[in-house]
Amino acid sequence: MDNKFPGKDISDSDLKDKFPLAAKKFTNHYSKFKVCGIEFGGKKIPVMAGPNMVENLSMIRKTATSVKKSGASFLRGGAYKPLTFPYRSKKYFETREEGVHWLSIVKKEIKIPVITEILDVRDIDHVCKVTDIIQIGSRNMQNYPLLTECAKTMKPIMIKRHYGASLRDWLGAAEYVLFEGNKKVMLCERGVSVTHTHRSTSRFLLDLQVVPAIKEISHLPVIVDPSHATFWRPWVKDMTLASIASGADGIMLEVHPDPENSAVDPLQPISFRSFSKLMNQMKKVAKSIGRKI
Ligand code: PEP
Ligand code: MN
């Protein structure tokens, strides 16, 4: 079908010419691959949980222990952070090399695989010694040199959707990774910019419609991050359950030992207790659609 707005949404010819590797080849074509023994794209829905930022060793150790006990498969946590403003303070900072080092300690101690963001090609070598999945942040979704260099490491890569990106742009980014021969690619919906978000502190709207839309045309697993999308703790539970119902292949959640005092984005992380409760609720929704947490 021809597109009324060429360049924005996906036309039939895009599937052949623009992202032949990301496009499905047949109706039930869904990629499945394992990361540290955990399957993505199958019946089970892996959960990645942890703080926005790896603030110090003690908090990441506590968080890893707690989220693993509640059933999370991966520890999330940024050390290199794409902070919106350049000014740093006691409350607004990045832990960079130190944060990556703390992740490496906890990963060994607690035996939980890790996902962390890479912002700059210069950090690829040392971050890849620790991380099991490379996170490409929403702001870097179309940083093609970064995507290409990260792809060459052959590490699994999760590409967060830019908050202004069409599905066409997003699959174009995934195609850059697939083009390098790296097949372990997953997409992550984390909210888009729209006119109304229903709260003055919420910057984005979770686009769950994109999950079935992806599954119609692409075989790549889709993760949903309701924490960044809602930016608001009280909404995280409902949007997480809705994400599972929408067909998400994975969930990323911000969990913090002291949510109100999180160094970055304190309105969105949930507590250890809420996370543990939510895991049980997720299991019920997953079961109702023939999947597992
Ligand atoms: C994050 O997950 O820590 C993050 C910065 O997310 P996003 O790129 O979606 O803003
Ligand atoms: Mn953030």
Q: Kindly, what is the distance between the CA atoms of the first and last residues, rounded to a whole number of angstroms?
A: 38 Å
Q: What Rg do the Cα atoms give?
A: 18 Å
Number of beta strands: 10
Percent helix: 25-40%
Number of domains: 1
Instruction: Estimate what percentage of residues fall within beta strands.
Output: 5-15%
- Overall 3D shape: globular
**Which secondary-structure class do the elements indicate?**
alpha/beta
In terms of per-residue confidence, which ranges show pLDDT below 50 for 5 or more consecutive residues? Answer: none
Question: What topology does this entry show?
Answer:
Layout: H1 12-17, E1 33-35, E2 38-40, E3 47-50, H2 57-70, E4 74-76, H3 96-110, E5 114-117, H4 124-128, E6 133-136, H5 144-152, E7 157-160, H6 167-179, E8 185-189, H7 210-217, E9 222-224, H8 226-230, H9 233-246, E10 250-254, H10 272-288
Parallel strand pairs: 3-4, 3-10, 4-5, 5-6, 6-7, 7-8, 8-9, 9-10
Antiparallel strand pairs: 1-2
Helix pairs in contact: 2-3, 2-10, 5-6, 9-10
Structure description:
- The chain is of the alpha/beta class.
- The strands form two sheets. An eight-stranded parallel barrel has the order 3-4-5-6-7-8-9-10, surrounded by six helices.
- Helix 2 packs parallel to helix 10, helix 5 packs parallel to helix 6 and helix 9 (233-246) packs parallel to helix 10 (272-288).
- It has helices spanning 12-17, 57-70, 96-110, 124-128, 144-152, 167-179, 210-217, 226-230, 233-246, 272-288, and strands spanning 33-35, 38-40, 47-50, 74-76, 114-117, 133-136, 157-160, 185-189, 222-224, 250-254.
- The protein has ten helices and ten strands.
- Bound molecules: phosphoenolpyruvate and manganese (II) ion (MN).
- Manganese (II) ion is lined by residues 52, 228, 264-265.
- The site of manganese (II) ion has 4 residues, from loops.
